[in-house]
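All the exercises in this workshop are built on plain-text protein records. An example says more than a description, so a record of this kind follows:
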Amino acid sequence: MLYLTSLLFTVAFQPPGFFNNTRTYVPHITKDDTRFRTALVLENPTADEQFVLVRAVAANGAALGEYEWTLPAGAREKKWRDDLFGDTTIDYMVLNKVSEVVAGVIYEPIAQPQNALRIGDTSETATHWRVYPSNWNDNFDGLILLNTLCLNLNAVVTYHQADGTQIGEQQRYALAPGHKALLNLGEAFTFEADAYIQVRADRRVMAMAVKGSKAADAATSFLVGNLAKAMDSYPDLRAELAEARQKWAAVSRENGYTFQQAFRCFCPQEVTQITQIGVNGAVIDSLSYVESGEQVPVSAVKRYYSVEEMFALIEQELGRADYMEVDFDAETGFPTFIGIDPSDCVADEEYSIVSQGLANR
């Protein structure tokens, strides 16, 4: 059991590094042969000129080139793969851009350019993915797995009947940082109606499914991507959260409640002091440091969480944190411990919230 009085904390935060939220990906680039080709489209809806850095990367994570793209205010521009990087064979692109710039990729059947399809770039990762393939007689399904983290990861790809029964042999992948795997599903598995592909990874992985025509010159030829569906990375914890909320809501607290809260993090000492919190109507109305009895400065009030706000924080982080651990009181649903690591690739930004001493007013 953790006790607030035993917690020790120190220093500072790390700035965003190589892997950050301004980075998005085009996980699949066609080879510009006689079948399909790839173009990158950027749109700048802002009133300012924007700079976008486009990097070409090989499947083993090796950097193959960079293209510095200056996009005028309000502009929309399209460039083919060979306009950006010549005849270099590349496997995926990484875009560093401000969030307002909209990026997309066009896959065009060379023999039928009117059938070109556009999809967006992506930054979504998950530990669990599903793909619903088509009949592989006329079309093909490809599955791309991309490790966008700074740590190694392992992924297992399996094929399942609608009732969850596994079909065939599983496919295993060990991906180093920046590495990409491409799997032709029709070659790895035997098609069955209503079946689905499942991806399970020990860390968040980016997945993209591409579907296309085997006959690229047919009048109805196509190539489209982003068909992989991210599943919940923390289904058990999400169920625990729902149960805790029900327990909490089942008890009337007409006059509010009090409890103590402290942070465990690489933070200044004033952040980590044990604090007495009073709440009325789900809103914090009193804050004081337990050791000194002094009121918490107004500038620091926003860092503290009521129970209702802790529930909201947990729900928010379930969709994006690389690691989470939460403990709830078995009787009341009160969150006694919340541990969050937003990113495996950033040092010292993980933190925990420890709460105890719940009492009704």
DSSP finds five helices and 22 strands in the chain. The radius of gyration is 25 Å. Residues 143 and 211 are 9 Å apart (CA to CA). Helices lie at 81-85, 185-188, 235-249, 269-272, 307-318.
